[in-house]
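[Discussion] Sanity-checking designs against the backbone

I'm trying to build intuition for which residues belong where. Below is a structure token string of 255 positions. I'd appreciate it if someone posts a full sequence so I can compare it with mine line by line.
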């Protein structure tokens, strides 16, 4: 790897760490760069996953204030994320690269619709519960847990826009501030990347130079993304989620 190639990977890592902390889809920045350097797709995907782990941790650290009082959710959702992430990592090595090519853009599109419609849908759900005299499950119930598990399987497999999936599910089924949900999302992404990385260390091929450069860049980007993301009002954060999700769909359909 030349100096300029290394610099490109490092800068991509900073960008990926930043956007991952704010919403997700940082893989769309680093993965194409690794492919452009000549790494095979699976090797690039594995190297990218390993390198983004420190960025997930620094992003979660930057959002630590918003995690206060969410320990129960962290434990409950974290277990689903770890199991799903491991399952997705296994699928990455077992299935052909084209396996999710058609379903992923549709999945992200549905998630974006939920993100846009979330305020209206949440209001309708609250009104319905008021009429029926019921209350919302504080942790979203089994439906949210199953949704997060499936989103984590996808995250362990590829990961682009998994943050969009998490935010759409939690935003719809939890009566919670969007920034606190974003803090949860960062921890879940970190768990998925972490368990997939441990699995890949033992069974997959990766490029240590690329891993190290992305790790350094994503760590810095995670801290930067937390500073930016925590200042965004809910409407702006929702707009960023939609824009990133649309970019992910375009990238996946046009590649």
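Best answer:
Here's mine. Compare freely.
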């Amino acid at each position: 790897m030349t100096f300029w190639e290394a610099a490109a990977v490092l800068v991509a890592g900073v960008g990926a760490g930043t956007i991952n902390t704010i919403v997700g889809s940082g893989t769309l920045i680093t993965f194409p760069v690794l492919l452009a350097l000549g790494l095979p797709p699976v090797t690039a995907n594995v190297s990218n996953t390993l390198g983004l782990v420190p960025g997930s941790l620094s992003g979660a650290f930057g959002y630590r204030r918003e995690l206060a009082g969410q320990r129960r959710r962290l434990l409950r959702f974290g277990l689903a994320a770890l199991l799903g992430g491991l399952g997705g990592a296994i699928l990455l090595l077992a299935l052909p690269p084209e396996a999710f090519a058609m379903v992923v853009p549709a999945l992200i599109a549905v998630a974006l619709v939920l993100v846009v419609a979330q305020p209206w849908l949440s209001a309708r759900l609250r009104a319905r519960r008021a009429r029926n005299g019921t209350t919302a499950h504080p942790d979203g119930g089994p439906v949210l847990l199953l949704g997060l598990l499936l989103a984590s399987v996808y995250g362990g497999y590829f990961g682009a826009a998994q943050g969009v999936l998490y935010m759409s599910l939690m935003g719809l089924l939890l009566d919670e501030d969007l920034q606190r949900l974003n803090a949860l999302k960062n921890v879940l992404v970190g768990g998925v990347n972490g368990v997939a990385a441990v699995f890949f260390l033992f069974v997959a091929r990766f490029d240590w130079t690329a891993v190290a450069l992305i790790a350094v860049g994503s760590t810095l980007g995670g801290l930067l993304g937390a500073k930016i993301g925590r200042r965004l009002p809910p409407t702006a954060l929702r707009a960023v989620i939609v824009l990133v999700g649309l970019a992910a769909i375009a990238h996946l359909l046009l590649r």
